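Subject: Sanity check before I submit

Could someone independently write out the structure tokens for this chain? I want to compare against mine line by line before I put it in a report. The sequence has 1340 residues.
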Amino acid sequence: MDPPPLLFARERSSTPPSLSQSQLSRFSPRLSPPPMPTEDMDMSMSITLPQGQNHDREDSDMEGTEDADQVTQPNSPHPPADAMDTTSDTLHAQARLEAATIMAELAGTAPVPPPPPVSNTFDFDAPNTHPPVTIIGANLVRVTSNGSTIDSTGEALDDYQPPRPPIDSNEPGPSTYDDGAESDSSSEEEDTGYRWYPLEEDTSSPDEAELKEIESREDYSALDHEYWEAKTFEELEDPEYTPGPTGRIHWKIKYNGTRENQQKELLRKSDIVNVGGYDWQIKFYPRGNDSDYLSIYVECVSVVEKKDKEGEGKQEDARKDSHSDQEPKDVAGEQAQSTSKEPLASTTKPRPPLPLLRNAPPPRRSVAAQVSVVLYSPSEPRVGYFRSCLHRFCPGSPDWGWTRFHGPYFDIHRRQRGQLQALLRNDELAFTAYIRIIEDETGCLGEHQSADNPWDSYAMTGLPSMVNRLVDCKADGNLISVMSIWMLLRPFRELLYKVKAPDMSLPDEARQKPMFLTTELQEVLLRLRCQVDPGDPEVDLCGVLCALLNYGIYDDLAKMDVVQIWEVLRTKLEQEWAGTPMEDSLTKLFGTAKDHRTGLPSYRVPVKGYKTIQDAIDGTKSPLVAPGDSPIVLNIELERQIFDETSRAWTKLTDELILNDLVSVNGIQYTLFGMVIHKGDLQSGLYRSIIRPHGPGSNWYSFEDKRNENIVMCLTQREVNQAQRISNTADKEKSSAIAYLATYIQSSVLSKQLDQVDLEKWEVPRGLLRNFAWASNISEWEHATKPLDTAQVGESNGAAESEDITHEFEVIDSRAFMSWEGPGYLDLYDNPELTAANKYTLSLPSSIIWKGPEIRDRIAQLVPGIEDPRQIMLWFLNTEEASPLRPYFGPASNAGFLPEDDVIFRKLKFDDADTATIGSFVEIYSDRRFWLHVIPLEYLSAQLVKPLKITPEPEMAADAVPEAGHTSQATDQDDTVMSDLGDFNDATGSLFPIEDELLAEATRLNDAANAAVIAAAQELVAVHPPLVDTEMIDAANTATAPPPAGNRMPEPPTNTPSLGPHMYFFLKVFDGTLRSRGAHIAKLDERVDKAIAKILQLDKPSQQKMGLFQEKSLVNLTSIRRRRTFQEENRTDDEFKDGAIIIVMFPIPDETKEDTFDRGEILDLQTYLQSRSDTRNYPHLLTGTFTFDHFSSDFYSGSMLHRRPHGHGKRIYHNGDVYEGDFRFSERHGHGTLTYRNNDVYVGHFSHDQRHGYGTFTDASTGNVYEGNWKRDRRFGRGVTRWEKAEADDDVCKVCWEGPLEAVFWDCGHMVACLGCARLMENCSVCRRAVRGVVKLFVA
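---
Independent answer below. Compare away.
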């Protein structure tokens, strides 16, 4: 009888074609247990450990093989989950229980019950007939660092024992061995973790029926290299991926060995073979790598870190000795070289997308390759198994393969059904590895991200990634897209190099108006050009948002599209650069800003009906750019949304529009620079930028958002084309990714940049380097034009300066706050005249102790009206990182006030805050500003144990010169009047003067301050007449009469008592305008509401109606709970401390509120703060007629006041509702027409966004009309309904008018449709709430 033909059985994959990439071909049609399906291949790295292999990974981390048809891109960091080894150990229950039975018999324990019968037949040719796959990772067991084991769920398995190979009953057990052999075996087990057992060879052969089944299939021999190479080296669909050298590794081993020459190694390696200039080898775990399966990996030795190579060098000789049965090394392929050859290096260094300021780290060694392994029996090459994959080998992932290649390993010596013989015959196994190098310029093909191999954006692409950590949601792609395009535009970078933002670390510039946004953009650019070392975090963009917050811009940027964010940033940059040589630079770069009054220039082109963007540019009706403009960079928005009048819904236009590499606008040629892709529906907020910095023929770079872990990828042109065009999905509107914005740059400018070979040298501002530890080697940077003094970079040493330098400080008296109006408490830049009369200049040596008495003594000589130095409260002001209108309060010079955070003193490295000197603080508070508050003498005397002994006013020191603008009248001012607490009144026991006293004292002020104080006093008396309430007076605060002048002594001793714990705060009252009520101090144990009531002299009814708020920022408020003390509020809110702003607001009658609302006056405190912020930040968008039609935003066209719809206008909401009529501060108020998405119409009066007054409502589904009165959005009072549908139709579906009315919407409870129509409705047609579910009603 002739032998059967040399055929291999091919296994059909159970995975759909779109998800199958691994080629798993079984040479034998039967495994025991049944073979794993294609998607169960365990692709992972191997880590060599002495005993157990601790991979620190779960099954979900084991990435799978690749395929051209799979959904994930070949270079995606997230390979498809279907490529993992997810086969549960329950598939091997029979083999495990059989092994357990044998072990129990050997140990003399009770036998294990036999398993349920398992069918021995399996149809491998039938589609999708693989055994069911159970829970992912159910059979994964890994070893922790302390030797215990945990399962894939992370729970410890203290009683887990590694599985031992089963022993046949006729094989000698441990008890039959001689003593010496068993002793040797035990010793070896301690060394290897495995006890050697002999394996009985299975010599059985298939019967005639089984042989016919085998012969009926088309099988291939393991020696048919041409066939396996064709299966491994699949065709590359992307033309930018070029096939490279190929080669093979042949390896034959003895698996178990003999008693005299036992093979007990946990890891075995083949000889090294060179393919394409890289050294390769096979790594084999005979007893599994944390599994019960044979584990096989292919390793690129050339990319392994040197320290890893050295650690394995000592084991090389022993490994070769144990592999003495190997066949000679056989290398096939055109580039098969000796093992001494180094990896092929690129002859030309690619141009970096963004040049570095420092020395670049060494490039990452990596190579992409298609690899496969054929495991077979040397005696019968038709019995074997095949696996393949595509992987990028790099130091973080030098090997890749299959943890569960085949198994379990203790069954390989037994023949399984469908095999001509057992896989292990004559104790021999053979391996053939096929390798083909892939030439990939992107450096991302085949990259598999893991804990051991994190995605290193710079190492792979030359660009660090960016992230916005201030955004909690995943939609941070809009800001990343904005910043990535700007930062990769060299013309914009050159603007940042040229602009001279004040350096807050330099004394000459510290008091200039800060450029918050410019400084943050320069810092982002610095990080992008420096933060490139392995392990460096992403470049955080939260500083950009913090800069906007400093200006009071609290707009929700997460809901803005890219164009809208560009407009906000550009507006602030133009304001910061006003009056500088850079004033018109943004107009020259990006063109004239769009005027929302006229909508011109539009910078937008239609997409419907056009094939290319050049056709759309030629066909647009409105001017794309302003007449005469020729911007260097042209951002063209594609009109991707339209309001469909038929469906009454916003629709995303997904028409394909080809972005030409070259376009012509007004005769000027532009080259495509980049694009922004929008994915999902209109409200998804998912954006990603794709940029080509060096023009056609160069690399594309994609900046991903948080959903894709904020990585940067290098893409091929084919991948870019796929990204900007719609995919063939069922729901294109909700799931399509399409280009919505294209950025072009003038071709002449781009060509000049490419011709330049300089690396953009930059004189980095010193202030940017102070907080970066990696800036200590700035002098070694290649491309910094001026080596900086490293002694002035980085953290302060905290020691006193060796030379006693004199510093000039600016002292601002708190009386400047008396005339303040609006949010904040100080304006040092735009309205300096408000504080000019209350500013002083003080010179202090750096050696003076900050909390010592000498500073207060000098200020007492400088500022008039101070009789005792203990009246002085002094704080450092921090204007560097705070809003210009409310600088942060630094440490106080006096003990006993609300304790400041010790972070400042720890930063200065002072163990005791009392020893900190002025010179050390200058390094932190470089603007050198003090905030001064003078405590009323009588209040201070009342709080001390002993009465004050007041000294005569000393002469002014020679080095303390009043600032220009002070006149002799200022020296005659009585501090007790300007003090915010006022005089103590003996008759009432109050700390605050009554009407006559306040007016009398105010007349003695200088002419400049007199008018403001008198007006404030008169207003205070008019609004809140002084009512005396003896119950409000705290006995502890009752002050004694000031001592007579005859008791004054030259100077109080230094150890005289000081104030106890107090808090310093600003007080304001809001009545349509936010007005100052002075700065005050209060005891920490005093109730906030009572302290405020005393200051404002309120009676009990007024006190109970008073509302208290804390102004936390220029536009943010928080309420202050009544009956809390200052200390309790501070414990709840750590921002409630010295310098806090407290706002008092009294109830306003509804009639007054409505009258002022109709007049366009603001009586809502939150709206007031926001309108004041808009006045400062958007002066060009405050009042007038505007049109706003940003992508993914509401449409509005009409009148505006304070940057809010006010007057007549039209608004189209996200949900499809359309309102046209009167607005008051963004609310529907007055007469208007509201058309709902379901075509219902209301025409009539509105009040505060509700139907209120007389109106007519038409039900579009029935034609019924109600005309009458409404109140708070409900029908109220008299009205008439005209029925078009009879009441008999009440039981009929109001959608199809055929089915019964049987479905109720959950959770609104309305019943308007039949069950079929209700399931199709997203919103209730009655209340327009979202339908969360549908419930069918059954009527009895």
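---
OP: Matches mine. For the report I'm noting this point. The chain is about 20% helix and 25% strand.
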